[in-house]
Please model this.
Amino acid sequence: MALVQAGIYSRPAGKAGGIVWGAARTPSGKVATAREYVVPTNPDTVAQQHQRLIFRTAAALANNAGLSLLDPPWNNAIGLLPAWQSFMSHALRSLEWDAGLSKAVWMDDPPTLSLGPCYMPVMTATGGAGALTVEWPTDIVGDHCDELDELYGLVFMKDSPNTGGEEFFEIAVGNHHRSEGSHDFHPPFVSGETFEALLWWRHSEADGTYTYSPVAQVYADTT
Model:
């Protein structure tokens, strides 16, 4: 039975007859939605099983990242999705099934995504002995860029992106600035693994607000 919790002027929720009521985000705010009720089926094909594993991997990445890193820069980054859902949607578009490894892996060339007008330079990554070095030019370009811009992001194992704990960490807030030109990451890496760095910049505007950059995605092998 559908419920109208706050009288006839509120949004219904649930099932009424053959109609299922829900909600969706629009530029005007949340609106009620209605769809025909259908009995779901589960053919459980191989392709379906792979897609479920990709979905679980994307969800694990989003959960590991957490809202403290993703909100607000990822809010509305994809359509009108809030931060967690935007990041997960990007992860779903960036993961693929690797038949040889029998798991979901991060693509070599995932889709591009912009979080705002802050300048994103060309980012590069090189691997070394237990280290991942990310480098960038320190040029100041445009109105949303200065030497104190802060680097944010996360690093994960490219071929095991849902692995948490020691193989995953977020960049410390405010500790890495555009003027530095590079940064070495020294978590307890696994030797011989390929690590992906998902990075973006935060620029402090004159009015006290922040703007963000496109997302850079670079990877390198450790030794």
In short: DSSP finds three helices and 13 strands in the chain.
